[in-house]
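User: My advisor, Dr. K., asked me to get a structural model of this assembly before our group meeting. I'm new to this, so sorry if the format is off. These are the inputs:
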Amino acid sequence: MDEQRLMNFVGKAVGDIGTLLNGALVVIGDRLGLYRAMADGQSITPAQLAEKTGTTTRYLHEWLNAQVGGGYVTYEGNGHYSLPAEYAVALTDESSPACVIGGYELALAAVHSTDRLTEAFRTGAGIGWGEHHEDLYPGCERFFGPSYRNFIGSEWIPSLNGVDAALNAGASVADIGCGLGVSTVAMAKSYPAATFVGFDQHDASVELARVRASEAGLADRVSFEVGTARDFPGGYDLITVCDALHDMGDPAGAAAHARQALRPGGTLMVVEPLAGDSIEQNQNPVSTAYYAFSNFLCTPSSLSQEGAMALGAQAGEARLTAILHGAGFSSVRRAAETSLNMVLEAKV
Ligand SMILES: C[S@@+](CC[C@H](N)C(=O)[O-])C[C@H]1O[C@@H](n2cnc3c(N)ncnc32)[C@H](O)[C@@H]1O
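Assistant: The format is fine. Below is the predicted structure of the whole assembly, which you can bring to the meeting.
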């Protein structure tokens, strides 16, 4: 027994206990507008922050001290605290691709399924995407939104051969596994001549997606339908599957159906979490977060469906490419990537 190694691990484990609880405290800070109230970078006391946000001083004192411990807030001395400008972007600026605040909402909603997941580990049963806590769906939208809004129309679609021009000329697009439609709406804003339909098997998500399209003033050319990846109708120039293929029970069947649903010369764009092909390559903070999400959400979702392939959220380019080739696409390549996503292009 290496006593030092033991104590080093105990230190890390206690830190992780703090991290787990601090994640929930971040959601509280977000809900109450505490980070937004500190986003100007000015130093502030708990009483001033309480006054500004309609909250109470004693709780904010404790919250701010926990934020200092977690490395989110700086203690300036003399009872004053500040939020560094860079951290304010990640925690409050949802127009920035660096904004990760939705990830906390998503994670906290996911852990409501802990009891059910414990039982699922014993039985092997799945948990359907629609069976989680209600905060999961807007949390997912909010986590992926910053990347989609910043990259889908400006980098990802332009990285595909011939697709930017086709969409500018009025192409027809289907977004499969669209959730609340954040990717669909982002594409529609970038391509005003194109028409879009999002399909998702989760009816409550589709209802909210319709509200999002209408709020964005896009309901005339963006629609949403309940449908699965294996039964939506055909006739599209571009089909997109954004952070959803690995959640499906039968991603191979979904890819084969997408190929049939594309017009000649059409393109499938698959956006997946960035990952290497093996656990050796997936030992970094992004993989740590995605393997954890995969345990709670992606793997149980797939296991709840026919096929139950359970690719997991770190499937890696080699497995995804093999699935797309197996579906009969003539060429498959990695067209783009960001720090969180890889974008695969598959041509009919
Ligand atoms: C991680 S969420 C991503 C949602 C959306 N694309 C986004 O990025 O916000 C995965 C989505 O895939 C949907 N999904 C899972 N399996 C599906 C299937 N077989 N057919 C259609 N949608 C499916 C889920 O209902 C869920 O909305």
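One thing worth pointing out at the meeting: The domain at 143-277+306-347 is CATH 3.40.50.150 (Rossmann fold).

User: Perfect, thanks a lot.
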